[in-house]
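User: Structure tokens for both sequences below?

Assistant:
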Amino acid sequence: MPLRLTRLWIISLLLIAACNPVALILPRPTATVPADNLASYKPALLAGSQDDLALLDRPTRYWLTLTYEPATPALTGSEDVRYFNREAVPLNEIYFRLFANYPGSGGKITVSALSVDGAPASFALEVQDTALRVLLSEPLAPNAEANLHLEFAVTIPRNAKGHYADFTANDSITTMPSVYPLIPAYDAQGWHIEVPPPYGDLVYADVSLHAVTMTVPTTMTVIASGSTVDTKDLGNGTTVWRLAGAPMRDFDLNVSAQLQKVSATVGETTINSWYEPSDADAGKNALKFATEAFRIFQDSFGTYPYRELDIVETPTTAGGIEYPGIVVIGRDLYHGTREAEFFEFATVHEVSHQWWYGMVGNDQVNQPWVDESLAQYSSLIDYEDVHGAAARQTIVRQVFQVPYDRAKAAGRDAPVNQPVAAYDESDYSAIVYDKGPLFYDAIRTKMGDVVFFKFLRTYFERYRYKIATGDDILKAAEDTCGCSLQNEYKEWILSPQK
């Protein structure tokens, strides 16, 4: 049985070491963490995709126990994390992102306790309190694992305006995206803990496995990434929801006592559209847009492996935002206060992000075009299929070319392959969302449709559940067509046009 590392035993070892000049190496304490059973994540996946879990290279595991209090409103909980060092170098620290502390969000997350492998650990807040640095007592060697435990509390702002108003509580819904401590990506540049501008996405992370137990008032429904495994009414006015999400880059949580839903099934996947009772017609339209796009993208790109996809009406001011297994769409689109065409376009764009960002990941902060430009062009692919071949030229000209030409005429052209922070908000849209898709239209014209769609399927399969870069896109395209696309890449992605 395991040895207990008592104080007397440690003193004895130290006395022996004092008489013997051999270095003393004490074992890392072992933490008590939940059983690590991959089968527990399978309910989130289609039967034919459950073997995908075996393809993953030691993904981070998150086990969360959460309680939502609507009166405050607040979320309290604990988090157990098993993290594997998959890097070639030892790690002296591990970072967590605390996105609830994003400047101007109006909310706050406070970590009250933290341990590593069962021993209390020191931590420090950095980067405007959005990064928590866990100081390791000894380096975490390559291929080694660390088991961390955190206790935290989140204060949720009411009727928030910061960062697209997507972290907020109002009378109909509480939205909590990426709200619990999340380990960011580590790559050749090290840990990614920079704070992007408020018009950019926040998360750059590897896929991981999420098991969430959440207690909410019985009158409320949890709408979250992944799938609901089961619910249990505790008989005291609260219900416990058990959720599983895998493989996913982050985890979105929403609770509501008011939203209604309409659903459709595509293959084995259930698509739910959640909406305000007064917005039933718009909620049905959202479902129609999403199911049409889902069919087209699954045929064009590759299999969506999850059992559910949720489309949710929220107060966000962004038009739409993507999360793994969830698309949130702004309430003003349901109310018709913005152009009707944008409702469809925004919904389709965000659904495409389930492939580009959700499954094929990228650095959304420093290479946002990798997912955003392709998501924009994917919307064109949907429109072309749904509205006819002429829609391609209409979208290219009116949605992409005209706004880009306007920016270029004003002297604001720029390379597409830049961080979000390289642009102001207007130029970010014109360059990443308008110029970027023109690259895809240019290579599609050169390749022809058959080879172009083969390239998209090749790119998806090659980088599914991984992180891709702009260079990876180029290589997948050139490998597929057997041609050089260097001129198109330089013209549209790497350089401002003359």
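Moving on to the next sequence.
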Amino acid sequence: MSRAAVYVESAAGRAALAEGERLTFGRARECTICLDPDDLAISRIAGVVECERGAGWIANASATRPLSVVDELGFRSILAPGRRAAVENRTQVIVDGSRSQHTIRISVESPRTELPLEQPPGAPTATGEHVMISAADRLAMVALFAGYLEEPPRYDPYPKSYAAAAARLGWKRTTLVKRIEYLRARLDAAGVPNMTGYAALTNLAEYAISRSLVTREDLALLRF
């Protein structure tokens, strides 16, 4: 048998998939992972995980219900019924039932690597990389964006309210607001787009997490 390349974890345990093997999950008892046979909110076969040419694939096998797919950074995307997506890094698939939420974790032994894109001539892209992020800035962002970084069922891909984040830190709300507004102003001045406007906080979350300014390891800062 070929060496396993794709690993799948759930409440039922851990499974390894070798080349050409597949795993199903859903309500049906005949699924490899039966999530809850009595929960009619879950499709009989909700999804399929496959190992193909050393890569992992997740397919939505339902005819009606989408799947939530969370990447290694904590960003969520929706996999529509009948669609399939490649899994190149640690990925979580969230299946919502009427009685509980179920999580399927997928990892790939040897993620495919992409060659770096050649930088075209011209002015460099503004990224805000020269903006200094202090320990207090990071702490403020972790409190605001903890939902993106938490594991299910605490996973929640939306910024917390300023009041909730400040309370978790033991700060005044105004202190947190001023720090984040000052950070956004500095990033905006450095050329980072979308740091102002109605979606500025969400855009800051996406910027900070995608550039690893805050990571899952930083959640430990909130647990003192």
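User: Anything stand out in the second?

Assistant: The chain has two domains: 6-108, 135-222.
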